[in-house]
Design goal:
Blueprint (H helix, E strand, L loop, with lengths): L14 E5 L4 H6 L10 E6 L1 H6 L6 E2 L7 E8 L2 E11 L26 E8 L5 H18 L4 E6 L12 H13 L16 E3 L2 H14 L22 H10 L7 H13 L8 H18 L10 H25 L7 H7 L15 H4 L2 H5 L17 H9 L8 H13 L8 H20 L10 H20 L3 H6 L2 H8 L12 H4 L2 H5 L31 H5 L9 H14 L15 H17 L6 H15 L4 H15 L27 H9 L7 H5 L2 H6 L25 H38 L25 H8 L8
Amino acid sequence: MPLPAVPTSASLPLCVSRREPKTPTQEIGAHNAALAPEYSLFICGRPRTITTTSTLPWVVGPPWNRQVWSTMLDLTSFPDSPITLFHYIAPEDTPASALPPPDLHKALNLTESKSAFLFVHDASDKDVNESMLYLRGCIELFHRYGGRGFWVVINTAGSTEKNGLRDVDSIAARFAEEFMKWPELDVFFHLETGPRVLKMPTEAAYCVVGDAMLKTPRLFAPRPDARPVVTNPGALSDQNFWSAFLNGYIVPWKHEDYLRAAYLTLVDPENRGLGLLDIATKFAADVNAFKQRYSQFQLLPESRTLTVFWLYHVELAFVSVRVHERRSDLARDFSFRGIFEYMPELRDHKLPTAYYSSDILKSEYAERFWMLPDLRPLIDPRRERDDEFKEDLVKKEREDPERLLRFVFAVVQRYLHPRETRRRSWFINFAFAAFQKQTIRLRTKQPWISVYSETQAYFYLQLVHAALLQLRAAGRNEYVQEMSYPLFCKMFNVTPSTWTAYYTEQLWNSLEARAGFLPPDIKPLPDTIQPSIATKEPAGRSPDPNLFFRRLGLIPELPSLETLHFHQAIVLDDAKALISNLDPTEVTTHAALLRYIHAHIVVPSLSAPPASTPPLICQHLTILSQASRLPTTHLTTVLTLTLHHLTTRFNTDYFPPTPPRPSSILPVGAPNTHGTRYRRAHNCPCHDGWESWVRGSLGLVICWEGVGKLEIGWLKGLGDGEGEGEETGVEDERGKKKDGKEESNRAKEGDARKETERHAQEIRKESNEEDDDDKTLAGAEPEDREVGDGGEEGDEWEVMSQHTLC
């Protein structure tokens, strides 16, 4: 089939003017369909291609919605019908297969079938395969919403024979061949609307497509069912399975398919060197993109906690095969089937219920943050034999022995804060009450959980206090506050079994020890505990001492529920002395900040339209940044969390509504179904009162004073970015500067990583493993190790990425 000829300059419709939208806030940020333009053109393609092939004055959305850009175009042939051009700027590290998030579809004017689609590919861009991924995503949107037509333009502006003009015909043939794979698209194209693939400058294509769209004002109905499907993904090779997964072709989507996608993500060479949480971010983005592309999928986006949980266990299965095949001389089989034949327990989709209580699994904070299990610890194969390891994986009645010690560590860190002046007994009363309450709650459904013991709580409190006080006396206050629980255990050699050196079992578990504190009967409690390893910081810039543990996923993004309840109780008590309507200059503490947010943002949002909440939060962020003494990062994080809680983040176009359950049977922290999200957003009466708001699911998170240290992608961006109305040339120059900055940051991260690994080696030297195989998570052989990739203990978790896709 011959390609259509390129229109001559005489036949191109003339663009007489280009102007910015008069009210970008309304046209871009609002979700009111009545404000949507009648005719619009959605410009899609690789992000850098669009911004570098056009000189139009793109208008950036408001601070809470900077991913939507727009501009306006006038045609001489239709002077009374201006066309609005929309463009979506994806965040960094977004997979090519991902679509714009559902909550932006109305802002992009896609939901009313009024928008035409124009896909842009630059002739000098040799990576046509990645453009195909973006193209398929645009076709998915066109299937879902319909529109006024679909075109592809091969941008020839500035191209010469040397840099790619001679390849235009072959590139256009590739796109025409791709269209042949979608025969149902034939109904969307007619001779009157012009050819599918255009070869001309991008801005000329804007005029061609706009003229064709106005001359033939057809609305093509959505066809979400017109898509290829793969019904037997188990028969596919790894490469074909991954391609089907990215394109959303796997129907139905089963738990085994989810595990296989997780496995392929972990062994991807591009993920080598990334920590488990960073890999979880990329994997969740791919799964969410799959759900978006599969229009019949009615599940909510991926839970952060469950994503990390399954990745941890898939990686655990991989490294366990390495450990135990060495011990039993088994043949190496690191394929997906080989790993899960060895550990079929992971095929049970209910496995998380053995680790997490319903209070966590059904909570909003587990959806957005990584939390450690509260019923039992994550399996660590370094200390287990083969039979014990497989038994502990599925053993139901097993509690976490470090739960109390981890909680006490967080309490001591809190009252040893450098600026804290209150007595530690004040904190201890709140802490032990929160722990006892959560223990009783857990024992209602898990009776094997140990009962609360006053003696055990005070014993561990004294141990942690004696250890951290030693660092504080040496002037290491910052080190005390930044230290993680795993690093503390390694540094001071404190374990849940340390009590055996001080108490007999009879006294430790006695009824009297539960009711009140009893002194040890073997030897007295220590006044100080010396660290078992050196705490001297390496020369130069001090790296993150917790990086080694964070890369393994052993440091949660949110602490345990009892720790959150402890911080919540402190905030509620602090707020008693504060007036409800604080001035910005009076926001000097975390409790005062929450009081201010409730009075000036939460309460006004109950009676205001949803679109007014984001600008209100941005306004108060500016005011607080100038008047409050709290760090700007702390203010931004708390206000961003409030914004996410008050605004509806999911759109009915992607996730159809589920039948709402009666409010009387919804448990505390119930799953966020479509109905409950909308009710909670602006109609929930619990927002009226200060204490009710703070005791809600959001309050449990933002009452934690460490929330300002969270570094998660969806928490970034509020108040960031450059001003509105920036032109493409400025964006291009800023992009070059940004690329140079990223290279500098990567170099600094590499130096910091080497320093961190040297620091971590001091920790590992004192671990005194009995067997060489136990020095790594998988007993990696010396020839399998690479110098400088995390030391002995981290190699096996990284060696997975050496295996390429089949």
